[in-house]
Specification:
The protein folds into 2 domains: about 1-205, Rossmann fold, CATH 3.40.50.1170; about 215-330, Rossmann fold (3-Layer(aba) Sandwich), CATH 3.40.50.40. It is about 30% helix and about 25% strand. It has 9 helices and 20 strands. Bound molecules: aspartic acid.
Length: about 350
C-alpha cells in the first residue's frame, strides 16, 4: 500500500457558508472527510497534517512556503507522495515556489483545491481530491510516475511552475499555455511520460530560504519616468519586468537610462512577457537589443508566478547580480523552454 500525506492549508475546498455573514469560511479537515466517505475505499494509507491556521490562499506568503517545504522535508522518507489542499487563487505561486525549493524531487507533490466547497451538491472538490491522491500514489516499477510539483484541477495535471489561474468561475481554473498536460483523467489516467521530469539519482534537498526583496515593473504605453524611477529605485534586489510581445520595451532614452542605472546599482532585472503564450527573445527586435546588451535576464516563456518565485529562490541562493541573472535564465525545474 502506498502512503500519502495530505497537507491541508485551506481554500474553498474546505469552506462552508457562514449562516450569519453569508461569506465562505474555512472548516477543519474532519469536516472535509465527513463529505468524502470514498476516501476510506482508496487503496492507500492516508495521513493528514492540517495547518493550525486554515487560510484563504490570498493570505499565502513565503514564510508559509518555507513551513510547507519543511513539512514535505520531514515526511519525505516516510511517505510515497504528497497532496496539498490549497486555495486556487495563489496555488500557482505556491506550486512554483515549492518546485524551486525542492532540489532532486523524486516524489509527487500534487496540489489541488476546488471552485465549489466540498459540501456543495455540484462540487468539483471530490473528483479533484480523489484523482490527486490517485496520481500521487501512482507508481511504475517501484518509482513514482509523477516526481514533480503539479496542480491537478478539472481532469488535468499541469506542471506547477507552468500553470496560472486563468478562470475564477469555471471548473477549468488553470491553464498551462507553454507546456503540455502531464496527466489527463478520463476513464483511465493517461500519463504523458515523455513530458514528465525524470528525477536525478541525487539526495533530495529542501531550500527554505526565500528573499522577497523584489519589485514588479509592468509596462504600458505612456508609463511615466517618475513611476519607472520609483519602481527601479525601490528597496529591492530583483525586478520582474513585464514587457510587450517577445520581450520588447520602449526605446525612449530616459527609459533605457533608468534601466542601465538600476543595473549599475547592482539590481537584477528579469524580462518576461505580458503575453501568456510564446517566449521572450531578447535581440529579435531593435526594441529589445539594448536590453540584452545591458545584461537584462531573459525570462523566455516563464509564467509571472514562476518568475516571481524563481527570483525569490535565486536571490536566496546567490549574492552576485551577474550570477543571479545567469541562474534566472537557466532551466532549473522545467519552468522554461529555450528556443
Ligand atoms: N479564495 C479561495 C482561495 O484561494 C479560492 C479558492 O480556493 O478557489 O483560498
Amino acid at each position: 500500500m502506498t502512503k500519502i500525506l495530505i497537507i491541508y492549508t485551506g481554500g474553498t475546498i474546505g469552506m462552508m457558508t457562514d449562516p450569519k455573514t453569508k461569506t465562505l469560511k474555512p472548516i477543519n479537515f474532519e469536516q472535509i472527510m465527513d463529505n468524502v466517505p470514498e476516501l476510506e475505499r482508496l487503496n492507500c494509507q492516508i495521513e493528514v497534517r492540517s495547518f493550525d491556521d486554515i487560510i484563504d490562499s490570498s493570505n499565502m506568503n513565503p514564510d508559509i512556503w518555507s513551513e510547507l517545504a519543511g513539512i514535505v522535508e520531514k515526511y519525505y522518507d516516510r511517505v510515497d507522495g504528497f497532496v496539498i489542499l490549497h486555495g486556487s487563487d495563489t496555488m500557482s505561486f505556491t506550486a512554483s515556489a515549492l518546485s524551486f525549493m525542492f532540489e532532486n524531487l523524486a516524489k509527487p507533490v500534487i496540489f489541488t483545491g476546488s471552485q465549489l466547497p466540498i459540501s456543495a451538491i455540484r462540487t468539483d472538490a471530490k473528483e479533484n481530491l480523489m484523482t490527486a491522491i490517485e496520481i500521487a500514489s501512482s507508481m511504475k516499477e517501484g518509482r513514482a510516475l509523477v516526481p514533480e510539483v503539479g496542480i491537478y484541477f478539472d481532469y488535468k495535471l499541469f506542471r506547477g511552475n507552468r500553470s496560472f489561474k486563468y478562470n475564477s468561475s469555471k471548473f477549468e481554473a488553470f491553464r498551462s499555455p507553454n507546456y503540455p498536460v502531464l496527466v489527463e483523467s478520463g476513464v483511465h489516467l493517461r500519463f504523458s511520460e515523455n513530458y514528465i521530469l525524470k528525477p536525478k539519482n541525487e539526495p533530495f534537498k529542501a531550500h527554505k530560504n526565500l528573499v522577497n526583496d523584489i519589485a514588479v515593473l509592468k509596462l504600458y504605453p505612456g508609463i511615466s519616468p517618475k513611476v519607472v524611477d520609483a519602481i527601479l529605485n525601490a528597496d529591492a534586489r530583483g525586478i520582474v519586468m513585464e514587457t510587450f510581445g517577445a520581450g520588447n520595451t520602449t526605446t525612449d532614452a530616459w527609459f533605457i537610462d533608468c534601466l542601465k542605472k538600476a543595473i549599475d546599482n547592482g539590481k537584477v532585472i528579469l524580462d518576461i512577457s505580458q503575453c501568456k503564450v510564446g517566449t521572450v527573445e531578447l535581440g529579435r527586435y531593435e526594441t529589445s537589443k539594448q536590453l540584452k546588451d545591458m545584461g537584462i535576464a531573459n525570462g523566455y516563456d516563464m509564467t509571472y508566478e514562476a518568475a516571481i518565485t524563481k527570483m525569490m529562490y535565486v536571490l536566496g541562493q546567490e549574492q552576485d547580480p551577474i550570477k543571479v541573472a545567469r541562474l534566472l535564465e537557466t532551466d532549473l525545474r522545467g519552468e522554461l523552454t529555450w528556443y
